[in-house]
Amino acid sequence: MYEIFKSVIASKSYNLEEMIKKINIRWVEDILTEEQREELIALAQTNADPSQSNAPLQKQIEEISKKQIALEDTVEKLSATVQKIKETVESGGTVVPEPEPPITEEYPTWEPYNGIPPVPYQVGSKVTHNGKKWESMVPNNVWEPGAFGVDQNIWKEVV
User: Fold this and answer.
1) Which of 43-53 are b and which e, b meaning 16 or more Cβ less than 10 Å from the residue's Cβ?
2) For residues 127 and 133, is the Cβ–Cβ distance under 8 A?
3) CB neighbours of 63 closer than 8 A, spacing ≥ 6?
4) What are the C-alpha distances in Å from 88 to residues 69, 81, 148?
5) Angle CA(14)–CA(16)–CA(22) in degrees, nearest 5?
6) pLDDT tens track for 31-58
7) Which residue in 32, 28, 27 sits closest to 2, CA to CA?
């Protein structure tokens, strides 16, 4: 059974939550040892492909991505228009003050990944979730800090 799990994990064709559940079931049934369980869970977390968990939503994600690109284009055009208006006003002798930059928190609230690239959490990203502060230890991190099966190799709790 251990070798079968390793083979499936190596294929990267699994849902992480379901894989961990199956590993734990086989451990409770005494089919896997504690050491095998820990090794398989760590391996599953490391090799997990987030797209496997989101496979049924792929078409919706692509549509949202297209809309995001269109919105970015619109914002760019509006920014250029605002800049031209500002230049016109300032050429008449009126000074237009620069907007204040937004205040950003060092540990903003964690938000689940919505499937729209880019993935917001990279190595070193800091978040607050369930009253705790976390730091991402992996690139393209889509996992929930402190969730079942998500250990210190993925999100490290900052104390």
Assistant:
1) bbbeebebeeb
2) yes
3) none
4) 29, 11, 57
5) 85
6) 999 999 999 999 998 888 776 665 556 6
7) 32
Other Cβ atoms less than 10 A from the Cβ of 84: the count is 10
In this structure, the strands spanning 132-136 and 155-158 are: antiparallel
Closest CA to 14 of 36, 37, 35, 40: 40
Q: Where does 12-157 have alpha helices with state H?
A: 16-28, 34-47, 50-53, 58-91
Tell which residue, 118, 104, 16, has the closest CA to residue 61: 118
What tokens appear for 148 in the block? 């079942």
For residue 71 the two structure tokens come to 């919105």
| Per-residue pLDDT reduced to its tens digit, 130-144 | 999 999 999 999 999
Length of the chain as a residue count: 159
